[in-house]
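Bug: token stream looks shifted between consecutive jobs. Job 1:
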Amino acid sequence: MTGKRLNSEIVVRAGTAALAIITVALLTFVPLSSNDFWLQSAIGRIIWSSGQIPRTALFPFTEASEFPFHAHEWLSSVVFYLLHDWLRYEGLIFVKGALGLALFGLCYRLSHRLTRSFVVSLSLALMAIAVANFRHFLRPELLGLLFALIILNLLHDYQTSGKWRYLIGTVPVALLWANCHASFAVALVLVGMFAAGALVESLQAAPRGPVRPRIGAATAAAGPYAICGMLMALAMLLNPHGSDLFRYAWNVQNWDFLRSHIYEWMPTFSRPFVGSRGFWAFALYLAFAVALLGAGWKNLRPAAILTLIVFGALALHTQRHIAFFALVSVYPLSMAIGPYASRIQGMRLARPALPVLLAACAGLLFRYGNMYGGFPYFVQSHNFSPLLTQFVEQNRLSGNVLNSYELGAELIYRFYPRLRPAIDSRIDVYGERYFIYVEGLSSDEQALRKFLERYRVGYMLLLRPDFDGGIRRMSRLNKDGWRIIFADHKVVLLGR
């Protein structure tokens, strides 16, 4: 009888794990849709072939080509270029999916270390992945999320074991992170919270008495984390920009222009984001977290409390930080529910209910897509259609192109230097003045005609809304010889 129960338990667990993997796969095995990928790959190609990192914007045909460029994602760019060169576009779906499964595995590992419960750990990991999914694009940010979870796992392992090898393991991760994405400072925030948590715990546990010994004990408890943080900071300096990388990351985080014009940097409760699938997933997760913490807040260690406060505040401030909050919050939520996990695991309905729920979630994802409407076989994007690429190649088009902001990156990857854009997706390089100027050309005929003549623009490649919203109605362009030479469901290409 015991053997039959054991076999039944193994079958149920295997089936539940398989359904969980299918759910994560439906969330993350989605074709490439981020236009930033093309720009990073183009920069990676230059670095790989020349051995030099571009220091200016380089690609535009305007004076903006001389604007300083801070290639903080240089290593990610090289990796993305090599991946695309090896796997081609169709194979990149497996890269996105593999990263999704890696994030899920790290969340599950962290939660299971705290709860020792298969059901609870799987549930928390799946919820975190689902909430972060609206940001699951093949961008350097995705590597930042992966590094954050690796470091959080290592810090927790040291917290519970006291073995230095876990702290030392964070240093090479910090080095990689600083060369891949500007979110690298999150690593220092994480280790700082563990240091502060150890300090508080030591002060709380110390018996009353002379102040100096208590402070000494507290300092000794926080010391390893402080040393780890210093080593991580030193490792982060090993990048092409040195200490200037820290200043750059701070400036980008506090640039108000980004919060006004770039969707991902807008406030969490701004109109474009409120009402989206990502917003409702975050709202439900936040409500669940509040309820869970209300029941188990006494189980939280100081480091976990600080994690919630800091990353919760970031998530409420800017929508792009929700992904970090969702993944990192697995640590405090698992700690809060930990003492009750075995009771939940032993509930009669818990084990059969989870696979049923997972099957339902998989069905919904198959029917409606992931958190940004993507499916394993289709996703909305600004990617060039094969017909557009074929048209440009067959006609050997060359010259300067006034383009929609979203189309510059792939234009560069596929056709530079034969075709040169006016702008691409590096908003931090171009700045507010240039960005607004180029964006405003589609609604100001006089300024547009001056721009076209001044820079001898030969083509305009525009998203249909940009064309229909302004340029279509500019009658004098016809007199200047401008005609539509290609159009599909996404873009309009004009030439003269």
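Job 2, same session, no restart:
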Amino acid sequence: MATRPPTANGLGMTPGRAAEELNRIEALFPLLDDVPPIYRHWRTLVEREGVIGRQVHDARLAAVMLAHAVTHILTFNTDDFRRFPEIVPVDPREVDGAPRVQT
């Protein structure tokens, strides 16, 4: 997403700029461990919601969140997460006072 062109719903960053942004984000937020319960949550979501194709990646993120009791996700693709009632998608452009990502 970071290096995908803006015309394809991306941020248009160079790989170097994306790496810098990842370093900044990783310093601000804890990383969640890849734990065994994630698979159980993922399978439940995929079967319950009829998830297919590339959407299985969004289901995996939702499963990670469920396994770690995280309820909100900051995403430019809020519609992709509305199918999971346990997850609250938040568009970063709608957060008051949010810094804007520079490309």
